[in-house]
Amino acid sequence: MKLLFDFLPIVLFFIAYKMADIYVATGVLIVVTLAQTGWIWIRQRRIEKLPLFTAGLVLILGGATLLLQDPLFVKWKPTVVNWLFAVAFVGSYFIGQKTLLERMMGEQLELPAPIWVKLTLAWAIFFFAMGVVNLYVAFTFDENTWVNFKLFGMLGLTFVFILAQGAYMSRHLKLDDTPSKES
Questions:
Q1: Rounded distance, CA 85 to CA 124, Å?
Q2: Per-residue confidence (pLDDT) for residue 3, from 0 to 100
Q3: For 178, which DSSP code?
Q4: Residue 105: pLDDT band by 50, 70, 90 thresholds?
Q5: Cα dihedral 68, 29, 100, 120 in deg (nearest 10)
Q6: Does the pLDDT value for residue 174 go beyond 70?
Q7: Model pLDDT for residues 47-89, shown as the tens digit of each residue
Q8: In this structure, are residues 111 and 173 in contact, taking their beta carbons and an 8 Å threshold?
Q9: Phi first, then psi: what are they for 180, rounded to 5°?
């Protein structure tokens, strides 16, 4: 359910674009993102930094797209978000005792510290590359291709990357050596 909630703005952006144009889609993106942020506030009485930051970027870059009638700004949003994620992942190596990835997943998975570092670096590279690929598609192909890529291409690449990360992690998981009781 959370995954659907997280992808709702992108899906509605896509639908609005297909039914109207980039400006209507950008307006829908802004409204849905702000509504999501409000919903989180109502339910939790606080908003974590990531959704708040994303909402701010959507408002600023989407607002610039609408005010200036130039889709350039909304096309930059995925790149800015991905590059900031990359910076956060790299920065976490230098700040604190654990990497960002270990802080996020360390409760569920027990991995050696060097593996957490490698995974964090892999995510940083992935986010940086996704930002570059977004710019390439946005400025090399037509707008319709970019919108399709934004939903299907980025989602597909992320899914493949997560599967690869899972396969890599599975080789390094510390398993419980306690023998199981047979019934």
A1: 7
A2: 65
A3: P
A4: confident
A5: -80
A6: no
A7: 888 788 889 999 999 999 999 999 999 999 999 999 999 999 9
A8: yes
A9: -80, 150
CB 83 within 8 A of CB 103: no
Q: Where do we find the tokens 């047979």?
A: 182
What is the C-alpha to C-alpha distance for residues 83 and 50, in angstroms, rounded to an integer? 13
**Three-state DSSP class for residue 21:** coil
* CA 121/CA 71 separation, integer angstroms: 32
Residue with tokens 């009781």: 181
* Alpha helical stretches, state H, the chain: 2-19, 22-44, 49-57, 63-68, 72-94, 100-105, 113-140, 143-148, 154-170
Which amino acid type is present at position 61? L
pTM for this entry: 0.85
Instruction: Answer yes or no: is pLDDT of 90 > 80.
Output: yes
Identity at 72, one-letter amino acid code: L
| pLDDT at 111 exceeding the cut of 50 | yes
Angle (CA) 39 11 103, round 5°: 60
